[in-house]
Amino acid sequence: MNNERKPTERKPADHADRTDAPASNFIRNIIDEDNRSGKWGSRVETRFPPEPNGYLHIGHAKSICLNFGTARSYGGVCHLRFDDTNPEKESVEYVESIIDAVKWLGFDWKQDGKDHLYYASDYYDKLYAFAELLIERGKAYVDSQSAEEMRATRGSLTEPGKPSPYRDRTPEENLGLFRRMKAGEFAEGEHVLRAKIDMASPNINMRDPVIYRIRFAHHYRTGDTWCVYPMYDYTHCISDALENITHSLCTLEFEDHRPLYDWVLNELADAGVFTRPLPQQIEFSRLNLTYAITSKRKLLQLVTEGHVEGWDDPRMPTIVGLRRRGFTPEGIQLFCDRIGVTKVDSWIDMSVFEGALRDDLDDKAPRTVAVLDPVKLVIDNFPEGVTEECSAPVHPHHPERGLRTFPISRELWIEREDFTETPPKGYFRLFPGNKVRLRYGYVVECTGAEKDADGNVVAVHCTYFPDSRSGTEGANNYKVKGNIHWVSAAQACPAEVRLYDRLFKEPQPDAGGRDFLEALNPDSKRVVQAYLEPGARDAMPEDRYQFERHGYFVADRVDSKPGNPVFNRIVGLRDSWGKPA
Ligand code: ATP
Ligand code: MG
């Protein structure tokens, strides 16, 4: 594991401190300094700018928690802005899924009754007008070289680029051509608009970057109104300035684009479009999570090629997948707090994510009993047709949440692994002659087992001690080392339980250009027919429980119905990945 900073294991009781006193980081230091100097008054306005070309994933959650969380903690606001300038790949379906994901994570974009939801495509008119202004001021020109010619003359890290033969066109000529580009008079690729900066700049992004290109494509919002579309680098900084963003947080790969961000805004400020101070771009390291993929393109491939059952497959690191898996918004936020923000790219271990989830769920999840690999246990001296009521705390550390009750009777379901004929050293559960406690019930002594023709155990037999019942005085007279869970066969709730595991076998499935599909874990989903404590019949979709001894489980939000629940394993009780069961 090589974390950015080793997350300290905090006890669940410490969760409350996280909103009161957010951990300091280099971004908060910059904001604090701006507040001291009065740069923005005390305004903090950030934005989360997804492109609606796919579903959000856990990497985006880091950016969401950072942008929305930072703004919130300073009493500011974070805008949700769709960066929708690539007409070919974007859609309303993605817009809606992104809105849902951000809301579900616990954030909103309202301040003082104003809804800060924006679309870069709403700025097309302004972006176009600013481009004409740059042309008029001699800061942009129409280049008519082919894409190959432009690539060939761009230079390299060691050599400067060569100026285009069209670089010295007059503003009038450029304006005429740009208007004709917009009017649809040229084919795609025939001309582009470039910023006129410096073909010899050591930063290749500053060598007259393209800021507009021709695309005859239907846009999901603006339809066929436009056939010229602005490039990301040009659009992004202007969108920030139009929305009065103070701190524009983005991932490290944009560090080399910052001079261009500043150039565009400074040119437009000089032209009187924007006033200073101008928004400041600040970069942080992206989240890389082991055993997960955080590339939209590869996630799309998993879905379209059928390696998973959809964007919301509980094994997917998408927000919809994590939600269906049973992860909580609070657990995801806790994880993002723990990993913090730095400027150093690194990998975070999946166990850190799962640990945050457990810490959140441990306190919240009511306890229940589930037998996932059932075999019958018959208590031969228990009267037939009789049931007695047993009880257990809903939560062992929260007596105020009360007790749950469930019946015990002559025939129970227990875990197959809780019986063996030949116990290995240290095995304290059922074997002939051994006594164990049926959790919250009686002490029983194993008398043997029935087998089928193939030698498989079909029923285990035992006798019970009527004076050994948990919670009664007699219970103390029995000292047993084993304690097993069970449900009464006649009243148990049968349920499908989906045992999910990590989607990949390798910690870095796509490292070194490897085909990530080869790292898929063939055992990432196992379905069992289980028997649950009768109360589980009342589970509503998205209700979460701790199945005692097994881990945390959620009633599936799509397939589970009250009375007929279907459960997903969220995470086991402890980190057992890679360790023998
Ligand atoms: P694309 O390849 O489509 O650009 P993207 O992952 O960059 O994919 P965007 O929709 O552009 O997706 O991302 C929105 C915001 O989320 C950006 O500010 C981006 O920097 C941030 N982001 C994306 N992936 C991560 C990640 N793994 N960790 C942290 N932030 C991320
Ligand atoms: Mg992006």
UniProtKB/TrEMBL annotation:
<dbReference type="InterPro" id="IPR011035">
    <property type="entry name" value="Ribosomal_bL25/Gln-tRNA_synth"/>
</dbReference>
<feature type="binding site">
    <location>
        <begin position="57"/>
        <end position="63"/>
    </location>
    <ligand>
        <name>ATP</name>
    </ligand>
</feature>
<dbReference type="InterPro" id="IPR022861">
    <property type="entry name" value="Gln_tRNA_ligase_bac"/>
</dbReference>
<feature type="domain" description="Glutamyl/glutaminyl-tRNA synthetase class Ib catalytic">
    <location>
        <begin position="44"/>
        <end position="347"/>
    </location>
</feature>
<dbReference type="InterPro" id="IPR000924">
    <property type="entry name" value="Glu/Gln-tRNA-synth"/>
</dbReference>
<feature type="compositionally biased region" description="Basic and acidic residues">
    <location>
        <begin position="1"/>
        <end position="20"/>
    </location>
</feature>
<comment type="similarity">
    <text>Belongs to the class-I aminoacyl-tRNA synthetase family.</text>
</comment>
<dbReference type="Pfam" id="PF00749">
    <property type="entry name" value="tRNA-synt_1c"/>
</dbReference>
<keyword id="KW-0067">ATP-binding</keyword>
<protein>
    <recommendedName>
        <fullName>Glutamine--tRNA ligase</fullName>
        <ecNumber>6.1.1.18</ecNumber>
    </recommendedName>
</protein>
<dbReference type="Pfam" id="PF20974">
    <property type="entry name" value="tRNA-synt_1c_C2"/>
</dbReference>
<feature type="binding site">
    <location>
        <begin position="51"/>
        <end position="53"/>
    </location>
    <ligand>
        <name>ATP</name>
    </ligand>
</feature>
<feature type="binding site">
    <location>
        <begin position="286"/>
        <end position="287"/>
    </location>
    <ligand>
        <name>ATP</name>
    </ligand>
</feature>
<feature type="short sequence motif" description="'KMSKS' region">
    <location>
        <begin position="293"/>
        <end position="297"/>
    </location>
</feature>
<keyword id="KW-0436">Ligase</keyword>
<keyword id="KW-0030">Aminoacyl-tRNA synthetase</keyword>
<dbReference type="InterPro" id="IPR020059">
    <property type="entry name" value="Glu/Gln-tRNA-synth_Ib_codon-bd"/>
</dbReference>
<keyword id="KW-0963">Cytoplasm</keyword>
<keyword id="KW-0648">Protein biosynthesis</keyword>
<feature type="short sequence motif" description="'HIGH' region">
    <location>
        <begin position="50"/>
        <end position="60"/>
    </location>
</feature>
<dbReference type="InterPro" id="IPR004514">
    <property type="entry name" value="Gln-tRNA-synth"/>
</dbReference>
<dbReference type="GO" id="GO:0016874">
    <property type="term" value="F:ligase activity"/>
</dbReference>
<feature type="region of interest" description="Disordered">
    <location>
        <begin position="1"/>
        <end position="23"/>
    </location>
</feature>
<dbReference type="InterPro" id="IPR014729">
    <property type="entry name" value="Rossmann-like_a/b/a_fold"/>
</dbReference>
<feature type="binding site">
    <location>
        <position position="83"/>
    </location>
    <ligand>
        <name>L-glutamine</name>
    </ligand>
</feature>
<dbReference type="InterPro" id="IPR049437">
    <property type="entry name" value="tRNA-synt_1c_C2"/>
</dbReference>
<feature type="region of interest" description="Disordered">
    <location>
        <begin position="151"/>
        <end position="171"/>
    </location>
</feature>
<feature type="binding site">
    <location>
        <position position="251"/>
    </location>
    <ligand>
        <name>ATP</name>
    </ligand>
</feature>
<dbReference type="InterPro" id="IPR020058">
    <property type="entry name" value="Glu/Gln-tRNA-synth_Ib_cat-dom"/>
</dbReference>
<keyword id="KW-0547">Nucleotide-binding</keyword>
<dbReference type="InterPro" id="IPR020056">
    <property type="entry name" value="Rbsml_bL25/Gln-tRNA_synth_N"/>
</dbReference>
<dbReference type="Pfam" id="PF03950">
    <property type="entry name" value="tRNA-synt_1c_C"/>
</dbReference>
<feature type="binding site">
    <location>
        <position position="232"/>
    </location>
    <ligand>
        <name>L-glutamine</name>
    </ligand>
</feature>
<feature type="domain" description="tRNA synthetases class I (E and Q) anti-codon binding">
    <location>
        <begin position="484"/>
        <end position="556"/>
    </location>
</feature>
<comment type="subunit">
    <text>Monomer.</text>
</comment>
<dbReference type="InterPro" id="IPR050132">
    <property type="entry name" value="Gln/Glu-tRNA_Ligase"/>
</dbReference>
<feature type="domain" description="Glutamyl/glutaminyl-tRNA synthetase class Ib anti-codon binding">
    <location>
        <begin position="365"/>
        <end position="464"/>
    </location>
</feature>
